[in-house]
Write a structure and sequence with these properties.
The complex is a heterodimer. Chain A is mainly α. Chain A is built from ten helices and no strands. In chain A, about 80% of the residues lie in helices and about 0% in strands. The chains are: A mainly alpha, B alpha+beta.
Chain lengths: ~230, ~90
């Protein structure tokens, strides 16, 4: 018996909306980063940074598509409460779900790792190969032990927070503080997702993830409207 | 210690000074506000005019400098890029 998702019946669809919102914010961050890369002409860090967000966005898209098929496939909806929780992997359609969720995990972890390594001075090819191996392994094993994915994501997010905290100690920028808060909330949601076998924790983790992406949205607004900010400073 | 201004930083500072003065500024004011020498400013003004980022207008017998739409767009995009760089430590 393998659990595909832990969504309570009354929360079905709402989690997809949260993922959809997350996808739009991540795609926007990718777009801004890519625009800056084109504007700066040669700054590769913008490109890699955008790539990190793009990978996580594609991960969210993968989970959205998989969940939509899972929730709204008519052959399943009548008995969804029982089927989702205790469904044996016998039908070929299950491969679709497994692959969908695998890509979600793989792309999310790869994206987080990319965000962590951007601007790192000591990245070697062996580091990247080793990290890729562990990311693939973690995503693959997570289909049986779901908490491994959330634990790996939590560790990567902790590294990212540490990186931005060191930056904040130098620049003291309010925007970097918002960024740290956003990642901290995202990390907290991953921590709660570890216990998502309990429905309440699953819902709570989703809500915290939503809050995290709202913070990212505030950050996007603050960055894209620098002229207004400058006027306020005066 | 503050880093040395790049060429693009100087162009951005000049555009900011013009926009802060309601898009009309005297060349001497621009020189003081953007911390440039006379010869430096002339070189930059010539370049900005060539790039179509600024224009010159005559008002009450005086020559004033203003930014073009292209100049304002450049200023906005560069400000956004700098803000993004600083926030995420991509400098």
């Amino acid at each position: 018996m393998v659990k595909l998702v832990f969504t309570p019946d009354w929360f079905l669809g709402k989690d997809v909306l949260i993922s959809l919102f997350s996808f739009f914010i991540l795609a926007t961050l990718f777009w801004i980063s890519f625009k800056n890369y084109k504007f700066s002409k040669d700054k590769k860090s913008f490109l890699y940074f955008g790539l990190g967000f793009l990978l996580i966005a594609l991960g969210e898209l993968s989970t959205i598509l998989t969940k939509l098929v899972l929730y709204y496939n008519t052959t399943f909806t009548q008995q969804i409460g029982q089927i989702i929780i205790t469904y044996n992997m016998v039908k070929s359609v299950d491969i679709f779900y497994k692959v969908g969720f695998f890509f979600y995990k793989l792309l999310t972890l790869a994206g987080l790792y990319t965000l962590y390594r951007v601007n790192s001075k000591q990245t070697t090819e062996t580091d990247i190969i080793l990290a890729s191996y562990f990311i693939i392994l973690s995503a693959a094993v997570s289909s049986s032990f779901y908490y491994l994915f959330h634990l790996t994501a939590l560790i990567l997010i902790a590294f990212i927070i540490n990186k931005y905290f060191r930056l904040y100690k130098k620049n003291k920028l309010p925007n970097t503080r918002i960024l740290i808060t956003s990642f901290s909330l995202l990390g907290l949601s991953q921590l709660i997702f570890i216990f998502s076998k309990l429905e309440l924790f699953f819902v709570l983790a989703n809500l915290i993830q939503l809050l995290s992406y709202i913070m990212f949205m505030i950050l996007v607004i603050k960055i894209t409207l620098p002229l207004k900010n400058e006027k306020k400073k005066k | 210690m503050k880093r040395k201004r790049s060429r693009t930083d100087i162009i951005h500072d000049m555009l900011r000074c013009i926009l802060e003065k309601n898009n009309r500024i005297k060349p001497t004011h621009l020189m003081y506000k953007s911390n440039l020498s006379h010869s430096q400013m002339n070189l930059y003004l010539e370049e900005l005019l060539k790039m179509g980022l600024i224009g010159k207008i005559a008002e009450k017998g005086k020559t004033l400098i203003m930014t073009t739409t292209k100049g304002t767009d450049f200023y906005r995009q560069y400000s956004q890029m700098r803000e993004f760089e600083k926030t995420f430590g991509l400098e």
